[in-house]
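In this supplementary section we document a worked example of the pipeline. Step one takes a protein sequence of length 458 as its only input; no multiple sequence alignment statistics are reported here. Step two produces a three-dimensional model, which step three serialises into structure tokens for compact storage. The input and output of this example are shown verbatim.
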Amino acid sequence: MVIYLSGEVEAVKLDELTPRQIVAELDKHVVGQDKAKRAVAIALRNRIRRQKLPPEMAQDVIPKNIIMIGATGVGKTEIARRLARLSSSPFLKVEASKFTEVGYVGRDVESMVRDLVEIAIDMVREEKIREVADKAAFNAEERLLDVLLPPTKIGSSDDDNYDQFQRTREKLRQQLRDGKLNNRVVELEVKEKTFPSFEIYTSQGIEEMDINLKDMLPGIFGGGRTKMRKMRVDEAIEYLTQEEQQRLIDMDQVARLALERVEQSGIIFLDEIDKIAGRESGHGPDVSREGVQRDLLPIIEGTTVNTRYGMVRTDHILFIAAGAFHVSKPSDLIPELQGRFPIRVELESLTKEDFKRILTEPKNALIKQYTALMETEGVKIEFTEDAIEALANYAFAVNERTENIGARRLHTIVEKVLDEISFEGPDLEPKYRKIDAAYVDRMLANIVKDQDLSKYIL
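The serialised model returned by step three reads:
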């Protein structure tokens, strides 16, 4: 299976991307954490290698699942998410601790795979929509022109009436494309909405059933019936385009491709895996921990899950588990589960220098985001070097004195620094602001000095 990459490496096929190039792409979005990047790059490359093996050997090559060990906010989720985007892989993040919460009923561990399939369906459908976009737009335009200028008896192609009709139609087409007919009201034949499907709860969790009562009882729910509806031309072209897109897409093919993509390149990110580490204590809230591990085991080892689109094998889904492991360790997991995560990688805590780089280096770095946001209102803000240094110092200091939430602290710090500018944005005069260390100190110093206040504000 060949997957084409998105973004800046669009011209490169996934099977031509080396581990070093994968790391280079991840470097554009995540600062540091080279060990974790290397681990996921090798795991992705091994997938590509496996697909080039003879089928009888490929089926026995299991994924090298990974456990990422590190505090919150150091980049565990972002590395996995960016890897999935890079390889156009269906990606699902799920918190393992959710399966142990009292009162959290109705979802079993197999629901992860069903959710991943739904994500893959959406991915493939969007890809197919892009493929048929031009054809759908043209068909919708033709249908709307038929409404605006019904093709009455116009004679043969060599008739004057025919030529006049075509000229008028092309004038309408141009007006339609120029938006000059947007406010005009037309009457379209639209399909009635289908009756919704249901989710039925059973002792095994949620079993999804496509019960479409409209199809079963068309006499009652009007299956396949249409009705006339008035709408503006701009609304009509949007409705017709969507209808044409759905008509041009083969949903059976979408489902087949989605199931294949889940099986061959799906990624499930199991967060908070440390919260279910431990053996049965026999009582209290921890009693379900080992039970959840044993429920997860067959999914990770490889089993068949029934979904609304068909059966899915989980043998080659890549599982990336993550946790802080402050009060537990990977060896506290049951041995069978440990064996299914052969790669362990520890992520490093963020330094002041890392904070500075996070603020400025990634493609969508925080400073770049806020600068672009304010520019939408004509406000130009400039962060000096000493301002970035000050922001990094404050984030690092607050993390040390209160809860360490890693890079997420920067969002809180920068938001507080830009509070006045963001509020005054539309009315700000002049439309230029330089953010230096003195400005950062003025906005944050009193809050940081008051430790009790900083716990709540920053």
